[in-house]
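Example record

The entry below shows one chain as it appears in the dataset: sequence first, then structure tokens.
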Amino acid sequence: MTVYLAALASSLHVLSISTGLGAFFFRARFLRQPLDDAGLGRVFAADNVAGIAALFLVGSGLWRAFGGMEKASTFYTSNGMFWVKMGLFAAMFTLECVPMVTLIRWRIAKKKGRQPDVSRARVLARCTDVELAIALLIILVAPLMVRGVWLLA
């Protein structure tokens, strides 16, 4: 049974990564297009998908690292590449605070029937581009971690 749960956790992790990458790509693209009602709807939809993917990514990652799956928790915590991966994730999350807060404000304005100030759309698109690059770096680091490169002893 554990092998099936490990496979499920791994599958959810990979699926959330690929979904999140696509959502970031489209969010950045939509932020560079006209932000009328339809444009904002596209931005919000891509952002919703990115948020759901992030929840599954974090949940499945924690499940894999600390849920007694195929590798013990110490495998992760004693691996330097795990900490590089977590540092990159922290940088990505910190950078995401700018679009997250701004898009929440835009949603609130829309809900109140006001047109949001979209003057920072290019900044949000640029933040998303950088987040996408960081996500790709994480994807490059992950196989090194899994193979035990740079174990801390």
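Notes for this example: The chain has a mean pLDDT of 93. Residues 2-146 form one domain.
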